Structure formats: structure tokens, C-alpha cells
Amino acid sequence: MAEAIHTPIAYLKGIGPEKAALLKKELNVATYWDLLNHFPFRYIDRSMVATCRSIPESDGHIQLEGYVDSLQELGAGRAKRLQCRFCDDTGSIQLIWFQGWRWIKPTLVPGKKFRIFGRPKLNGAFWSIAHPEISTADEQQVTGYQPIYPSTEKLSAKGLHSRGIEKMTKSILAKVAIDDLTDRLPEDLREKNKLVGYATAIRNIHTPNTEEDFVEAKRRFVFEELFLLQLEMLLRKGLRKRTEQGYTFTKTGKNLADLYHHKLPFDLTEAQKKVIREIHQDMKTGEPMNRLLQGDVGSGKTLVALITMLIAQGNGFQSALLAPTEILANQHFETISALLSDLPINVALLTGSVKRSLRKPILSGLQDGEINFLVGTHALLEDEVQFSNLGLVVIDEQHRFGVAQRAKMRGKSSLSPHVLVMTATPIPRTLAMTFYGDLDVSVIDELPPGRKPIKTMHRFESHRPQLYQFMQEQISLGRQIYIVYPLIAESETLDFKNLEDGFQTISEAFPLPKYQVSMVHGKLRPEEKDREMQRFVEGTTNIMVATTVIEVGVNVPNASVMVIESAQRFGLSQLHQLRGRVGRGADKSYCILMTDYELSKESKKRMDTMTETNDGFKIAEVDLKLRGPGDLMGTQQSGSLNLKIADLSKDQAMVIQAREDAIALYSSDPKLASPSRKNLRNLMVQLFKNKPQWDKIG
Ligand code: ADP
Ligand code: MG
Description:
Blueprint: H1 16-27, H2 32-36, E1 42-45, E2 62-74, E3 81-88, E4 91-97, H3 101-107, E5 113-118, E6 120-123, E7 126-130, E8 133-136, E9 145-148, H4 153-157, H5 162-175, H6 187-192, H7 198-206, H8 211-243, H9 254-263, H10 270-284, E10 290-295, H11 301-314, E11 318-322, H12 326-340, E12 347-350, H13 356-367, E13 373-376, E14 390-396, H14 403-410, E15 418-422, H15 429-435, E16 440-444, E17 455-460, H16 464-476, E18 480-484, H17 492-509, E19 517-520, H18 526-537, E20 543-546, E21 559-564, H19 572-579, E22 590-595, H20 601-612, H21 616-633, H22 635-641, H23 652-668, H24 678-689
Parallel strand pairs: 4-7, 10-15, 10-16, 11-13, 11-14, 12-13, 14-15, 17-22, 18-20, 18-21, 19-20, 21-22
Antiparallel strand pairs: 1-9, 2-3, 2-5, 3-4, 5-8, 6-7
The structure holds adenosine-5'-diphosphate and magnesium ion.
């Protein structure tokens, strides 16, 4: 019986190979099963019949029962339309057809009873419905909730709009024995979370009788999706622990001691010490470390990374530090080289722009173990980059490296190297669970001492004179200022013009010789960029006009003012990153967000959040609610998760519950060996089959 559900969709009456191919292409639906798993995204209540007098103001579909009173053909040619008055006991509304009226007209017998269904619009004082569905009172009526399915233009053109999909789904439901299908979720788990069974859920998500029906069905599928994801990550993690052998780093080494006692100009924060202990603990066990390091902007993650690398070096191993951009890689290279000067450690930089002739010695230095630390970008992933003994990979992630890249780096070592992933800005706990659920987590929850909170202000164009005055005051106190212009992704030229105009205006308001202004943007050659940056770092220039190239990496403690132009164009985490460029010295620092007067509700919320808090974790929570996980994690990475029904910004409580339950189930039965886990186990084996990097489970 159960096999019937895997029948190719082409065999369904009225479908055939052509529509089947389109369904596959547009919705990735190939079988009956696939279509049953193509869920509606909303429902329309068809049990309610409204009256002409009390049409609800809400922007949705309604039903009316009544009769046609008068019919009129209006206009001519293409503008021709059919219009009629539709009455019930309480009043009347207008129905309009712009197309197909020739077929409709004969059916609209005046005085006959009809039920109509459509979306009313208010034209002046009169309600009207264009192209309503009509049925006579003796036809079978649609009752209960009507599901609305996602479809596409191409499918709709072939009659597979929501209604078409609904019909197909209903005929499959009538054909296959859903009740014979086994539930993948174990019964105890279903009971604990009061989840409806699989068969009921499938039926109710497609053909609900009550609102509770579809709400509960959806709840079950959301839980199932999140639970399976969590379980998969736990299995993956367990598998790694059982099958991958790691290096045991018990020592810390002389170089770390030298850095710590003689070279570091400050003490580590308690939070930094705590996470370093957690990291070192991992490295001692003989299992490969897989740890996520979270910390707010400026919390000192780089130093933690460096110390971790020194531990690897102290045990005779090489380290690689992977950054998402060249600017950031350069910055890390410089910071690390400076801190390690005089210590017998070789650091190399490898990015896409390192010339072939310079690559050679780096590649051979890596192979013969001459180079201890390699800092770089995606270029490190290339096959020609081979190490003598890679013991640690640090990924300064900015959400751009996925599981596959992590696996690729892991492959560059005979045993599995330790892996430390750092996020650039905090991400909410539920997202970390979902995207990095296979990693252990350390959090730096404290900033280095002496940082004064940055005062953030939101200002409009009319305040520009005051802004300039404030900037002059700050400069006369010896401070430096950033002014950042947004990148307009669609048009680099426009982007550049925006920046150049800004530079022009600023140069006029802050004229030579009293003031020095420099400009940095993506179009500059690396040497020019470096020169401009250097002039600012040295304090030669007072103002740095820039695009977001300065978002990451730049560290100029004397800069105390960050002005962000057209701030409404930036996302919250980007604004927070930019703000993190100031407040690095002991001076009171300011961030000024300049925007248009007219702001969308969402932009207003972003500006308010920035002025209200400096806490990156709080900002990340707001960001998740405003933008959803796709924008926050980068669409590429969030797309790779392929969540079908769960919504990470709305289902946060469910994420936590699913994780707890997955952990409980996994720790009591890591091989899913008990008979009640049989279906779950089969499913997981199936899943892991399609992911070659991870073998079979159990
Ligand atoms: P992020 O976590 O954003 O990567 P960084 O590692 O760039 O932060 O550190 C920000 C600044 O704080 C750097 O200038 C760094 O030298 C400094 N810093 C790091 N740790 C400490 C500490 N314990 N005490 C004082 N300053 C520190
Ligand atoms: Mg950093």
C-alpha cells in the first residue's frame, strides 16, 4: 500500500509527462508524496457567508449569497466589460468582468440564487468584486477552509494555480492510504509535545475543517522539520567524534608564555580567559575541536584566535586563519605579525592577489613546515595549498563559509585539525543552534575594560550645520572622524558618484590647509588604498570618507566619531559593525546616523534600536525579527538549510524545544537502536546517504 505514495505525478489523471516535468522544474515535485509535502501557505474560511451590508474591511476573500438584479455591458473594444448588481436581503454590491464575460453572461440569470466568492474592493462608497467565482445554490458548495498553495506563473498558465494544485492533492488523498504510512516521529516524542500523528497532519494541512486543524498540523510539521535538523547535526557531530581522530595538544609552549608575559600590553579579560580555557580543554582530549566563538564587535576575538594558534605551534603544529575578505585577511596578518614580532614564528599571507612568483615560496614553506601560521582568504582552500602538519583551522567567518568549506580545510591534514569558527557579529541563540548546531559554543560576554559606551544619535538633513560644527569641535580636540557612504549594490557607478559627491561636500566644508580629508573605496588600487589608510592611521588626515570597505578590520583608536550617511540603507548588523570602528580608544565616542525624513517602519526600528543599545546580541535579535534568517546569515547559507515550513524568526521557541528533545533522544540512544526509533533511524540513514562527506551512521 505504502508504495503507491511514491507513484510519479505524471500518472495522476490529467497531469501527464509535460505538466509533470513542469512540476518538477518549478516546485521540485515528482511524486504523489512530494505533492502531499507541498503545503498551503494560507487558508480562506469558506464556511462564512457575509452580507452586502457588513462587508469586512479586511483585505481578504469573502462569500456572499444573493441574486443578480441587473446586467450591463459597458465600454467598447478592449475596454468592454460586464457589470452587474448583486443583491441580498441587506443591500447590494457590484460585480465586474473584464474578460470572459461572454461566457459568464448567459449564466447570470436575473433572480436566480447564487453564491459568489472573491475579494471585495471599495470604490468610493461602493463595494465591488472583480471576477468572482460563482456557483448556483444547487451546486455543491466549497465548505470549510480552502487552502492556498504556492504556485508559479508557468504552472498557473497550465492550470496548475492554487486551485489546480488543490484538486490534484485532493485526488491523491482519495487514492493513497495515508493511514498506512508510518510516522517518523517516535510516539513518546509526539505525546510529550502533543503533536498530531503524521496521517492526521497531512490530511489536516490540506483539507482542514477547523482553524485548529491546520494550526496543529502546521505545528507538527514545524517541529518535525526542526527536530530532524537538530538530530542530524547531533548525529553528524557524534559521527565525527567516533570516526575522526584529532591531535592532542597538552602543552601551551614558550612563545605563548612570552607573548602573554612580555609583549601583551594588557591583561586578558575574564571572558577571554574563560573561552581560552574551554578551547584548550577541547584540544587536550584527542578528539578534534569544533567550536564556535561568539563575541560582540571589539570583544577581542582576534587575540583569542592568536592564542589558540600559539597553542598549536607550542605543540609543533601549523595553523591556518581563514578570513572572508582580503581586507580582513590583511588586517589579521598585520595585527598578528605585529604582536609576534621578535618571536620565532613565521607568518605568511595568502590571498587571491598574491602573485604567482610570491606564491611559490609560501607553498613550499608550508610544505616543509617553515611557515607556522598562514593567514588568508578562500585562496587557502585551493588544492595546491598543502601543509606539513596542519593542526588548527580558525575561520573568521562573517557567515560566509559553509559546512563544505570547513570540511575542505579539514581534509588538508592527516588527522582532523581542530576547528575554531568565529562570528563577526553576534547571532541570536536560535540561529546559532540551527546553523552551527554541530559545534560547541563559547561566548565572550564582556568587552575589554575602559571602553566607554558609544553615544548614538539619529539626525536628519536639517541638522547638517550642527553636525559639521560638532565635527569641527571633535577635530580641534585632536580626534579623527569616519564618514561612511552606503554601497548601492545595483549600481557601482551611482555608488561611486554618491561617495564622490560626499567627498566634495566634505572637502568644501572642511577646507585645506586646516583640514585633511582622505577617501577610501573599493575602486582604489591596493597601494593607493593602503596609502590613504596609512595617512588616517598616522593621524595625518582628520576625516576619512569611505564606503563600507572599512566595515571590518580597521582599528584606529584615535577615531572617535562615526558618521553614517543614508543610514537607512544599512542593515542592523552592518550598522553595529560600523559603529564598532569607534570607541576603541579611551575617548568618548559618537555614532551619528544621518537619514532621510521619510523612513519605513522598519528603518525607523533599526535607527531606534541603534540609539537604544550597544549590545550586539540584542541587536541581532531585533535583526532576526526584522529581516528573517536569510538576510542575517547570507541567503546562500540559509538557503543551504532549505527549511520548508519552519520560520526561524517566528518559531524560535520551537527551535529550542526541538533541540532539547533531539539532545535527550540522542543521548539516551545515540545509535537510534531501540525499536521505537526504527523509522527515524531509516530516515537518517537515507539522509546521510546523500551527504557523502559523512558516511553512514551507527
Ligand atoms: P573583535 O572581537 O571585534 O574581532 P578585536 O579582536 O579586533 O575584536 O579586538 C578589538 C580591540 O581590542 C583590538 O584593538 C585589541 O587589541 C583590543 N583588545 C583585545 N583584547 C583586549 C584586552 N583584554 N584588553 C584590552 N584591549 C584588548
Ligand atoms: Mg574581528
